């Protein structure tokens, strides 16, 4: 197996650092699936609906890497699966989110007594010289027999899908609500998107009007006026973690709901796609 890539575009370096930071906030363990044309970051959680990851993030390598070369486990299975702690990677890359000086970031699969993803960050220095910071991130190679656990999920038939027009507002509301309740009801239908919490003292709801429907393929649906609303109750802290992605300024956010079963949030930003899955709690 071989993997080597190089990023030199500052915007792409920052985007990559943002992805890793998001991963670190969500989970302590992440799997990266490396293929000839894409990188997949996958987070599994036993609390999620069977066959569904918690997070399925897709990066087009052609957008991020100016140089890219990989050789998988075999010609037939030309992929690499690695497990790692995203926090160990987020810390050395965190400064790159705001840096105006990084010249390049190289990443390669190495063997330094144990498998590592080695990041070589090239920074300018005085006297027209350059500095190089090297970070070795320990990884575990996932054997071929376990790859089936990390395949793209099969999406169920959702009851409704709505385009969320103001994800920043949703995040701010959820941040305030999570101090009052452990769960939140997400309701969509009749042109609105509603967040509701119930406490012993009160019921608090935020209504976002003017949303329109979409189906699982992103095509506007012809749902008639007055259709019933669909609701799922989810863990509010888990939802708040996912909404941290609001900081990437996604160009498209869609929330799909399978009533009382699952909430699926799709975020798209240029050549990065985030898919979040949150199992519904029993009412």
What does this structure look like?
By secondary structure, the chain is an alpha+beta fold. The chain folds into 2 domains: 2-150, Proliferating Cell Nuclear Antigen; 160-279, Proliferating Cell Nuclear Antigen (Box), CATH 3.70.10.10. Helices cover 17% and strands 41% of the residues. The chain has 5 helices and 18 strands. It has helices at 10-26, 61-64, 86-93, 167-177, 236-242, and strands at 2-7, 30-34, 38-43, 55-60, 67-71, 80-84, 104-111, 115-124, 130-138, 140-141, 160-163, 183-189, 192-198, 203-209, 230-235, 252-258, 262-269, 272-279. It has a 9-stranded antiparallel beta sheet with strand order 10-6-2-3-4-18-17-16-11. Helix 1 packs antiparallel against helix 3 and helix 4 runs antiparallel to helix 5. The longest helix has 17 residues, at 10-26. The protein is globular and about 60 Å long. The model is unreliable at 218-222 (pLDDT under 50).
Beta-strand share of residues: 35-45%
Largest sheet: 9 strands, antiparallel
Number of strands: 18
H-E order: EHEEEHEEHEEEEEHEEEEHEEE
Estimate nothing, just give the exact number of structural domains.
2
Residue runs with pLDDT of under 50 for 5 or more positions? 218-222
Please give the structural blueprint.
Elements: E1 2-7, H1 10-26, E2 30-34, E3 38-43, E4 55-60, H2 61-64, E5 67-71, E6 80-84, H3 86-93, E7 104-111, E8 115-124, E9 130-138, E10 140-141, E11 160-163, H4 167-177, E12 183-189, E13 192-198, E14 203-209, E15 230-235, H5 236-242, E16 252-258, E17 262-269, E18 272-279
Antiparallel strand pairs: 1-5, 1-7, 2-3, 2-6, 3-4, 4-18, 6-10, 7-8, 8-9, 11-16, 12-13, 12-15, 13-14, 16-17, 17-18
Helix pairs in contact: 1-3, 4-5
């Amino acid at each position: 197996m071989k993997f080597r890539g190089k990023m030199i575009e500052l915007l792409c370096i920052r985007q990559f650092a943002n992805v890793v930071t998001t991963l670190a906030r969500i989970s302590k363990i992440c799997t990266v699936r490396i293929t000839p044309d894409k990188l997949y970051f996958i987070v599994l959680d036993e609390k999620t609906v069977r066959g569904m990851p918690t997070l399925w993030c897709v990066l087009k390598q052609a957008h991020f890497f100016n140089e890219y070369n990989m050789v998988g486990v075999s010609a037939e299975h030309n992929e690499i699966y690695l497990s790692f702690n995203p926090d160990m990677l987020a810390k050395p890359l965190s400064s790159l989110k705001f840096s105006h000086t990084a010249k390049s970031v190289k990443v390669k699969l190495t063997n330094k007594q144990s498998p590592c993803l080695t990041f070589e960050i090239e920074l300018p220095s005085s006297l027209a010289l350059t500095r190089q910071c090297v970070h070795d991130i320990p990884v575990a190679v996932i054997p071929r027999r376990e790859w089936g656990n990390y395949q793209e999920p099969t999406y169920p038939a959702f009851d409704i899908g709505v385009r969320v027009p103001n994800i920043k507002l949703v995040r701010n509301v959820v941040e305030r609500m999570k101090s009052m309740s452990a769960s939140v009801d997400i309701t969509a239908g009749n042109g609105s998107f509603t967040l509701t919490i119930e406490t012993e003292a009160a019921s608090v709801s935020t209504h976002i009007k003017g949303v329109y429907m979409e189906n699982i393929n992103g095509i506007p649906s012809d749902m008639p006026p007055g259709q019933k609303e669909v609701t799922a109750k989810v863990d509010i802290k888990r939802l708040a973690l996912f909404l941290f992605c609001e900081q990437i300024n996604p160009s498209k956010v869609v929330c799909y709901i399978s009533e009382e079963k699952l909430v699926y949030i799709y975020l798209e930003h240029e050549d990065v796609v985030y898919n979040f899955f949150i199992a519904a709690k029993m009412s």
